What we know:
This protein is mainly α. The protein has two domains: 11-80, Arc Repressor Mutant, subunit A; 85-223, Four Helix Bundle (Hemerythrin (Met), subunit A) (Up-down Bundle), CATH 1.20.120.530. It is built from 13 helices and three strands, in the order αααβααββαααααααα. The protein has helices spanning 2-5, 11-15, 18-31, 43-50, 54-67, 85-109, 112-130, 134-152, 155-165, 170-174, 179-196, 199-223, 228-233; strands at residues 40-41, 70-73, 77-80. The protein has a three-stranded antiparallel beta sheet. The chain starts with a helix and ends with a helix. It comes from Actinomycetospora aeridis. This is GntR family transcriptional regulator.
Amino acid sequence: xxxxxxxxxxxxxxxxxxxxxxxxxxxxxxxxxxxxxxxxxxxxxxxxxxxxxxxxxxxxxxxxxxxxxxxxxxxxxxxxxxxxxxxxxxxxxxxxxxxxxxxxxxxxxxxxxxxxxxxxxxxxxxxxxxxxxxxxxxxxxxxxxxxxxxxxxxxxxxxxxxxxxxxxxxxxxxxxxxxxxxxxxxxxxxxxxxxxxxxxxxxxxxxxxxxxxxxxxxxxxxxxxxxxxxxxxx
Length: 234
């Protein structure tokens, strides 16, 4: 069953992830252009938006500082760091390299039960698209890739991919124009190649699928004027 694949953390475990919830929220604000480079990130408004206290907000911002999303100005606080088009493409490139290798390994090791779950996820994704359930589509997109990564049976590589993927807010990206169409077009092709255990085809399809996402996101952020100030300055 698809619902068994999409695992929702219980409340206690979620409470332990408060700094990451903050980091996810602020990443989305930065990547979407709602917060621009140089903008100060005040603790209180972020705490109110996420529904937490100031302590996990500070911890989340310190985490984002180590990722290069924010900077800490002495005696003034946190500010959003520059986020360029090349940063977007670099993030997707890393994700494509790791995801395509995991998919290739999955093609060799995937079980009939895992293939059945992927088929079920595809069917459920179609139903979610029919009713325009963006949140459900985001969950199912995550479940699709997670199932393939589990089938690869390469834990360390999957952890590295997870570290790269978290830089791109899942629900924000799922709302980008063309993302749903890309998933509906590419995911069945990937599953078909997995059924055939075609390692080279799976690797190529997964890489193309991920890299196409960079173009969609860059186009969307350009439309939003995220880099308008940079163009004016140059």
